[in-house]
UniProtKB/TrEMBL annotation:
InterPro entries: Ester_Hydrolysis_Enzymes, SGNH_hydro, SGNH_hydro_sf. It comes from the Bacteria. Residues 32-92, 303-322 are annotated as: Disordered. Residues 104-280 form the SGNH hydrolase-type esterase domain. Coiled coil: none annotated. This is Acyl-CoA thioesterase-1. PANTHER family: SGNH HYDROLASE-TYPE ESTERASE DOMAIN-CONTAINING PROTEIN, THIOESTERASE 1/PROTEASE 1/LYSOPHOSPHOLIPASE L1.
Amino acid sequence: MQRRWRIGFLAASLIASVLYVPASLTAQAAANPPASASPQKSSAPTEPSDASMGGNVTDSGAAPNPIHVPAGAPSAAGSSSNDANSALNGPSAPVDNRVVRVLVIGSSVARGWKDPKGGGYLHRTFAALSTLTPITYDVIDKAEPGKGVLSIRDTYVGWLETYRPQLVCIAWGGLDDLYQHTPMSVYDEQVRWQIQEALAHHALVMLVTTPVSKASYTSYRASQQALMESEIQVADSFHSPNVYVFNLFDQMKAYLRAHHESVQPLMHDSWHPNARGHALAAELLVKDMLAKFPVTAPVFKAEPSASQGHAQSDKPSGNAAS
């Protein structure tokens, strides 16, 4: 009976979230956010041709990924005046604070493009979870339209150290990287590094495959499917209690098949869902998170030091991107 009540309550809350969106869903950035974090419009075409993951990366730079600073190391300013705030808001903050800081990385769909009132499927998801649970999910949205996995190599570690999230949501759409001919090996290496750095900063990780688009069935039917499956394998390879995978891409496909529905009514254009598409993606993701993720007590679990050493040994050098 409790399960039925919860499902009914969930459905009602999700409908309410579609109709009555909070005025502000995105958390305000810190007073001095990274300069490169401002969003830019995507330059990718609406109807791209199919792209191979075996091509060369353009404008990627050959610099290696930055390495995280150990927790005990002094900050750049050499100041320890904010230790009290760190104890309250840092990655080890107690759950009874009732606030979980979420860092979102991804591109335009993760940012919520074409869903101006709802804020996108991720903001809808965390708004619903904030209603359904005692926890408030405070979203710091660093998803940037038109960008791929290589775009945050110089800023990601800084975000982790500046915002100290308890949860990192990795939600790349894949289409920008396919369009930019990012090799699959480079894509996987970057996703692996992003997970490693989040874990090194004692943040939980949720890898979310992207909602489907028209391109998922046409221009990039095979390549996007392969990319999503590959990043899931990367996340699963950690065998970590702090890494969670939510395969929204296949769940949406299964939903449309089961209900004999076309993807077209859910689309704003070939690459981006409309408000209805974002709402469906949020509904599916919320249900999956309630089933698999500790939404009422999201706490980082200590792991054996051997696993951390394995993660460090797998850190990509960046040469593959040259």
